[in-house]
Design brief:
106 residues; globular; 4 helices; alpha+beta; 23% strand; single chain; five-stranded antiparallel beta sheet
Length: 106
């Protein structure tokens, strides 16, 4: 089975796993206080992730991430608190990264 691989801003690599309705990450390389955590926690702690290129099979396995974003964007009152938190954490990480890059360009 193939899984999505991602790198955080400090270069650690993680595998993203879908367990039930939850996205978890497991550290593959580098050091961090924990080896397994929720995807949203990883984004909160270590910023946005850089996803490695995927093959079509892997992309199909993680289509649920896009589904979560689409649900929260189009029908937020039916989304769970966890789904909203995941989308908000990813967006916050992107915005934080963009804000720090803009500040360093000045």
């Amino acid at each position: 089975m193939n899984h999505q691989i991602a790198a955080d801003r400090e270069g650690r690599t993680w595998v993203i796993l879908s367990i039930g309705n939850t996205l978890k990450v497991h550290r593959l390389s580098g050091t961090a206080p924990v080896a397994v955590m929720d995807l949203a926690e990883l984004v909160d702690m270590y910023g946005p992730l850089i996803l490695s290129p995927t093959h079509a099979v892997v992309a199909d396995e993680f289509a649920s991430i896009i589904d979560i974003v689409d649900l929260v964007a189009s029908d937020p009152e039916t989304a769970s608190v966890e789904q909203i938190r995941i989308v908000a954490s990813v967006l916050r990480g992107i915005l934080d990264r963009h804000t720090s890059a803009s500040a360093s360009d000045r």
